[in-house]
Design brief:
Strand content: 5-15%
Strand order of the largest sheet: 1-8-5-4-2-3
Number of domains: 2
CATH superfamily of the largest domain: Dehydroquinate synthase-like - alpha domain
Oligomer: single chain
CATH class of the largest domain: Mainly Alpha
Structural class: alpha/beta
CATH architecture of the largest domain: Up-down Bundle
CATH topology of the largest domain: Dehydroquinate synthase-like, alpha domain
Order of helices and strands: EHEHEHEHHEEEEHHHHHHHHHH
């Protein structure tokens, strides 16, 4: 017996940003975005079609951290009214920040308390979110959790609440057309990790598997073409679709080992999230072959019948994008890499992984 749930209403297609006025309706909205020239232009476009926002929070930083979130939550709490809706216009950091703000009733204190203790969720707010991703990779527009960082304490938290599913996700591939090559690659690899990790996952089901197979197949076919033709809207659309379906897949399964081991690597070595959670995928795939019949069948739909060759194909795919699959190239030495993998397997996300510690360590590369 299995189930699949996702309540997000999705609009997908070029120009779909123009549907925001009808989605917002007559509600006051808080715009959460980046403080960059491109997003200043998007803000002006949104104001032109939907009217002025109640407030703008544009001090979002990569890997949303306790310190800036505290300031943003205070600003939001002072201006929001009961009927405020949050419009998150940006990448994963923007959407994750929006989810923190959506939980903020009187500043960041109650959110921090909930993250650190898991208690007193009734003290959090429940503002609705409209997510408008401008990258193809995060999947946060169709999930109900946000990654929150406490860099000072070297900790990572997941803010997970069913009410944090955005009420709408508006995916407009045209918004990704200006992404530079490096960001195009790293965000897309995050989505590839979402798709594969939802396959070798105890929480997988028939629907998530179909979404994941489609996402991984499309991403591996189109990303190498896109990095050499960044203005190609058809390729942008196909990569955005792959990212969306990867998000739908892991919205039900959560991630697994590759994400679990990525967080300390990002914290300690400042490795960009998309790289930190993808460079270990070939090694992990090699370790899981033969562990689960359903997993093998789904991986064969992507890589063909020879899964050993498939893991090598995945390794070459990453190498061709300029991504090393060796932990040592990110600053991690062998003894530490073994310790990180062992710890990651014991973590919340690591426990979703259907493989074994023995097989992982047997296939360990450094």
């Amino acid at each position: 017996m299995w189930k699949f749930d996702n309540p997000v209403k999705i609009k997908f297609g070029n120009g779909s940003i123009c549907t925001l006025p009808e989605i917002i309706g007559d509600r006051p909205y808080c715009l959460v975005t980046y403080n960059e020239p491109y997003f200043d232009q998007l803000t002006a476009q949104l104001v032109d079609i939907a009217g002025a926002p109640q407030s703008i929070i544009n001090d979002v930083s990569p890997n949303p951290d306790f310190v800036p979130l505290r300031k943003s939550a205070e600003t939001f709490s002072n201006l929001a009214t009961e009927d405020t809706v949050i419009v998150a216009l940006g990448g994963g950091s923007v959407i994750d920040t929006a989810k923190v703000l959506a939980s903020s009733k009187n500043g960041f204190g109650a959110v921090q308390h909930y993250l650190e203790t898991g208690q007193d969720e009734d003290q959090l707010a429940n503002y609705p979110i409209i997510a408008v991703p401008t990258t193809a990779g995060t999947g946060s527009e169709v999930t109900h959790w946000a990654t929150v960082w406490d860099v000072q304490s070297q900790k990572k938290y997941s803010l997970a609440r069913p009410c944090l599913y955005p009420e709408h996700a508006v995916i407009d591939p045209e918004l990704t057309i200006g992404l530079p090559k490096d960001l195009t690659i790293t965000t897309a690899l995050d989505a590839l990790s979402h798709s594969l990790e939802s396959i070798w996952n105890h929480n997988g089901n028939a629907v998530s598997a179909n979404h994941a197979v489609f996402a991984a197949t499309e991403m591996m076919a189109n990303l190498p073409l896109l990095v050499n033709d960044l203005k190609n809207i058809e390729l942008r659309t196909r990569v955005a679709m792959a990212s969306l379906f990867a998000g739908l897949a892991f919205s039900n399964t959560k991630t697994a080992l590759a994400h679990s081991v990525s967080y300390p690597i990002t914290l300690k070595y400042n490795v960009v999230h998309g790289l930190a959670c993808s460079f270990s995928l070939p090694m992990i795939m090699a370790s899981v072959i033969g562990e689960n019949e359903t997993c093998d069948k789904n991986l064969k739909r992507i890589f063909g019948d020879d899964l050993g060759a498939g893991s090598r194909k995945l390794d070459q795919f990453l190498n061709d994008l300029g991504v090393s699959t060796r932990a040592a190239n990110y600053g991690v030495q062998q003894e530490e890499w073994t310790e990180l993998l062992t710890s990651a397997l014991a973590g919340e996300r690591g426990k979703n992984f259907i493989g074994s510690q023995k097989r992982v360590l047997e296939t360990l590369t450094i």
